[in-house]
Design a protein that fits this description.
307 residues; alpha/beta; D-Maltodextrin-Binding Protein, domain 2; 2 domains
Length: 307
């Protein structure tokens, strides 16, 4: 064992030793205090719901607002695909993520994360809906018209863009949905699924109603080109999940900042950018229906859809 060198000096008195010990204690205390107050970065994952550049700009504003309220730098990072959340959490040590309903069940089951706040949309609902659509000139109007037609899904880890259309087909008597329809593929985002149907790369598509509504607001002619064939029931919207390894005071600070945004002029501006009125508390029980939906759709998260 190494002994502190000054203690070995024969001319040191007890008073010298006490003074030296006090100095060492203060140095250690100062070092520890600096470590405690040193800001750390909070890294939040964002799923590729729609145009990645617009999405990042909106979430940078949200991150900036949270940074101002918590005093901790908050940085968003877009994940390249929906199912990447588990891998990204492990590789990048994400502190949290805004997760759609199906990837949220993965985060709950595999990572033990906690849902803290979900947005209430401009219609006053804390919900998301899926749509199945086609071009008006496709001639597709009923279930029997879908047989052998090409289908643009979003990603196998989305409820609105994958689970819902499979469930719709099953609930209408189609035991093997992917065998019933023709060629199918994944576009990676909801707006890309809409574009795939618009430009004729697919006869049918599925996407979030909120993304469709944003596209429609930009281009009202969309309503003349597409027809909605089915709409899902309400699903949890993209919700902020935080890692349980994040310090409790940081989790509380982020949650409080979100829940109180609507009371702040700057917060209301940020909310408008993401299409929300305010945030409300989220609960793990919100995702029980999504697990049930996946089971009824015949989807196993590890093996894909039942054939």
């Amino acid at each position: 064992m190494t002994i502190w060198p000054p203690l070995l000096h024969p001319n040191l008195t007890g008073r010298h030793i006490l003074a030296a010990g006090l100095i060492l204690f203060l140095l250690l205390l100062t070092s520890r205090s600096e470590a405690l107050v040193k800001p750390r970065e909070i890294l939040l994952g964002i799923e590729p719901e729609h145009n990645i550049f617009t999405q990042m700009e909106n979430y940078r504003k949200l991150a900036g607002y949270l940074t101002g309220k918590t005093g901790i730098p908050v940085r968003p990072t877009v994940m390249s695909r929906y199912g990447e959340v588990l891998q990204r959490f492990k590789e990048l040590h994400l502190d949290g993520a805004l997760l759609s309903s199906y990837t949220a069940t993965m985060a709950l089951d595999a990572l033990g994360m906690t849902p803290v706040a979900r947005p209430v949309n401009l219609a006053g609902e804390a919900a998301s809906y899926g749509l199945i659509f086609t071009r008006k000139d496709s001639g597709i109007r009923q279930l029997r018209d879908m047989r052998g037609k090409s289908f643009a899904f979003v990603d196998p880890a989305t409820a609105e863009g994958y689970l819902f259309p499979l469930l719709y087909l099953r609930q209408n008597g189609i035991r093997n949905p992917l065998a019933y329809i023709g060629r199918n593929f994944f576009t990676g985002s909801h707006d890309s699924a809409i574009s795939a149907v618009l430009d004729g790369r697919a006869d049918l598509g599925a996407a979030k109603e909120a993304v469709y509504a944003r596209q429609l607001a930009k281009d009202p002619a969309l309503a003349k080109e597409l027809v909605i064939l089915a709409r899902s029931g309400p699903l949890p919207p993209a919700t902020l999940f935080l890692s349980n390894s994040l310090a409790p005071e940081l989790r509380l600070g982020l949650t409080t900042a979100l829940l109180e945004m609507a009371a702040n002029p700057e917060g209301r501006e940020v909310l408008r950018n993401i299409g929300a009125l305010h945030f409300t508390r989220a609960d793990k029980k919100d995702y029980d229906q999504v697990r049930k939906m996946a089971a009824e759709a015949g989807v196993n998260r590890d093996q894909g859809p039942a054939q």
